[in-house]
Design goal:
The chain is of the alpha+beta class. It has helices spanning about 25-40, 45-50, 120-125, 125-135, and strands at about 5-10, 55, 55-65, 75-85, 85-95, 100-115, 120. Helix content is about 25%, strand content about 35%.
């Protein structure tokens, strides 16, 4: 299993009235982590879009464990949790600098044609991308961890 890491410097604007990172900002960090993972594997979302495809989020789940605050640095760890014919699930951990788990999450995505928004198989549209995801994913299709 391949894990990508991206450090995020927490800005004051990302915090709420309680002085902790506002919950919706974690979703932005997931996107940053996912983009970094894809780049680390040799691909880009921009490249996918230039070919006429998009990869919308179909589900996201976040469990908040320990608050993060302005001035801290977050480490976003991202991996391919599951990858099938039509869906890819990414896994995430967001960690404090000392390694304490701040949040864990998953997001599910499909690839669609830009004009029609109809799902397409990533295996057909981007065979190299599909093969790389098969190689680095955490779970086999039967749920067994690699």
């Amino acid at each position: 299993m391949f894990i990508s890491e991206k450090e995020i410097e927490i800005r004051y604007a990302e915090t709420d009235q309680m002085g902790v990172v506002y919950h919706a900002n974690y979703i932005i960090w997931l996107e940053i982590g996912r983009t970094k993972l894809i780049e680390d594997l040799g691909f880009t979302y921009a490249g996918m879009e230039s070919e006429g495809y998009l990869s919308p989020v179909t589900d996201v789940s976040i469990q908040y464990k320990a608050p993060m605050r302005y001035g801290q640095k977050a480490l976003v760890r991202t991996w391919v949790e599951e990858h099938g014919r039509l869906r890819t699930t990414y896994g995430y951990e967001i960690l404090h600098e000392d390694g304490t788990l701040a949040a864990k999450a998953t997001s599910e995505h499909v690839v669609v044609k830009k004009e029609t928004f109809r799902p397409v198989s990533i295996q057909k549209a981007f065979p190299e991308w599909h093969e790389k995801y098969q190689e680095v994913k955490r779970k086999d299709s039967d749920g067994v961890r690699n």
